[in-house]
Amino acid sequence: MADGLSIGYMLGLIITLLVGIFWVWMIVDATKKKFKKKRNKVIWLLVIILTGIVGAFIYYVTEKKDMVKSNSFGSSGFTLGVLSIISLGIFGVVLSIVGFIFCLVQQMKKPTKLAKAGLIVNGAGLILSLVWIFYFSPRLDELMNQINSFPSA
């Protein structure tokens, strides 16, 4: 139990740290970006600061268009899908959802084959992770309890 708690705690800490870094990165980007109207900069900064990660993600998708013109979202989403299949569990669910969103954004802005493949891989990663959480993990726990209940010689 202590191992599971510490792994979950570390995972939560890492995700929180990454989200915080992304949020600060979007604030810095919005401060440095040259907007056509000065008030747009103020509006974006307020949106990012007041809505947190949601505003930062909206800013990223709408204002960082040059990144979407390439295949960066598609390749990132595909990579997250592969990682979600490898990791499984809760972490796999999180990775597959984020990867799916990245691939979906890529497909809406500039459709690519890699983003389409990423949608499929992320869907498979989500299904496999959920199967692991709700089917295999409880079975593995039962098996470990049976092994631990054998009398020692």
Task: Note the main attributes of this structure.
2 domains; 7 helices; 153 residues; mainly alpha
In short:
The protein is mainly α and 153 residues long. It folds into 2 domains: 1-63, no CATH class; 66-153.
Question: What does this entry look like structurally?
Answer:
This protein is an all-alpha fold and 153 residues long. The chain folds into two domains: 1-63, no CATH class; 66-153. The chain is built from seven helices and no strands. The chain has helices at residues 2-32, 38-51, 53-63, 65-69, 72-87, 89-109, 113-149. The model has no long low-confidence stretch (mean pLDDT 80).
> What fraction strand?
under 5%
Q: What is the rounded distance between the termini? A: 26 Å
pLDDT < 50 stretches: none
Largest sheet: none
Class of secondary structure makeup: mainly alpha
State the helical fraction: over 70%
Number of helices: 7
Strand element count: 0
Order of helices and strands: HHHHHHH
Please indicate the count of domains: 2
Mean pLDDT: 80
Mass-distribution shape: elongated
User: What does the radius of gyration come to?
Assistant: 20 Å
